[in-house]
Amino acid sequence: MINKNTSLRMQSIVFIGFMGVGKTTIGQKVARKLYRDFIDIDQEIEREFNMPTTEIFKKFGEKTFREKEKSTIDYFSQQQLKIISVGGGAFLQEDIRKICLSNCIVFYLDLSWEYWKERIGLLIDSRPVLQSRSLEEIEELFNTRQEIYSYHHSKVNTNDLDVEEVADYIVESLKVAWDIYEPLK
Ligand SMILES: Nc1ncnc2c1ncn2[C@@H]1O[C@H](COP(=O)(O)OP(=O)(O)O)[C@@H](O)[C@H]1O
Ligand SMILES: O=C(O)C1=C[C@@H](OP(=O)(O)O)[C@@H](O)[C@H](O)C1
Ligand SMILES: [Mg+2]
Question: Structurally, how many domains does the chain consist of?
């Protein structure tokens, strides 16, 4: 359910999906196309700890990362006109799902496993959750995580689309939704 108190056009957009589907890259592009500020939750956390996520996991543990992830998302999701990319594990927390779904438009970036696995080399060094797992275990995680991504308002399958094409599709579909539900007078 979309928040009835805020104009749809003003609501922030949140991107969700598994690690490496393109939330950060595409979020940044969509923000530029819509003239909005871009917030990457992982980058905000890394800035606050002054170290990369892999180091945060090593030094403080995943629990500390998840707590900071929740408070950071809580803070930014209450602001308007932002483009926010959250980490792939954020929607594991029900509280995060609730605040994002009630305050923002949640866009799910979908990518099939066959496409995703071609990207693993780009991701392994910076994603601690992947580092301790075999390919079979990552596939299992990929499949079990799909349930948490079913909580969204809109979705795009990015198989065979480049970053520009995905961003254009998202901007167009947002404009259609804004025009249907909040036509300009
Ligand atoms: N649609 C796409 N096609 C090809 N490569 C992509 C696409 N989207 C993202 N990538 C690449 O995948 C990698 C992970 O992207 P990133 O935006 O960091 O994902 P996320 O934030 O979801 O973890 C980057 O190297 C990025 O350039
Ligand atoms: O899925 C996860 O548990 C995580 C995803 C990462 O973000 P991306 O989805 O942007 O890679 C980052 O938040 C952290 O490494 C944990
Ligand atoms: Mg990211």
Answer: 1
